[in-house]
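fyi for ur records
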Amino acid sequence: MKSTAMRVSIVLLAVAALGVTVICEPLMAAEAKKAPAKPAKPTKPKDPAFEAFKKKAKVPVVKVPLVPKAPKIDGVLDKKVYAKCEPMKFRFITGGSAKPTAATTAYAVTTKKELCLFFKCESPDMDALLKDVREHDGQVWNDDCIELFIDPTNKRQLDGYMHIIVNALGTTSEAKGPGGAEDYSWNPKLTVKTKVGKKDWTVEMSIPLAELVKDVKKINRAWAVNLNRMAYLIEGNEDTAWSPTGQSSSHVPSRFGILWLEAGKVDNTKK
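which gave:
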């Protein structure tokens, strides 16, 4: 009897053990099937030098990404190339918080050889868009136009910047020097393309860095730049800029914004 009882006990224990195994194995298998937790993607550290400079600046500051290949200059925004750009929104040139009726947004990138810019110029009066001037270095400012003021030294001298104007036809005017005393003998090798749509017109251009600086291997990090637009609207003209000058004139280098070039190797930010 004792022997039989012992055999029964052993069987029951074996069954019990087997039951535990049967119950545990599916749980262990389920745990094994769970995907391991993915490590959090490291956040890209901010550029401390840029952030500190931007915080102290009294004018708008935007970082210009260095890209491996320039966009196709066709007047159509290449979202891939300009993906890392901070959009530059225009305000009335005299300042204030009012929003322009004709909104303007600009983007900028560089390669190691050229500066590329794209402008989207919205308008409620596209049927009235002025685009008459076809003569190079003509009075392009009398049309709806985009203007660029570029000082690669950031010294902000009245005679130290370049001035480029483009209308919706792609007609350009280029000069060096202050307003009223421009030198139009400067003719940089620009690539410009414009497109006119139903609600806006666009300008895209590339400027060889060699046309803007003496040595492309010694490019300054901070450039004094302003981007402006004149919109001739039915209900009144709108003169706007990325960095408002606080007055009706655009030729105020002390009020230009700053493009911080990733391509810039020379630190000219410390005075």
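The longest helix spans residues 2-33. thats all i got for now
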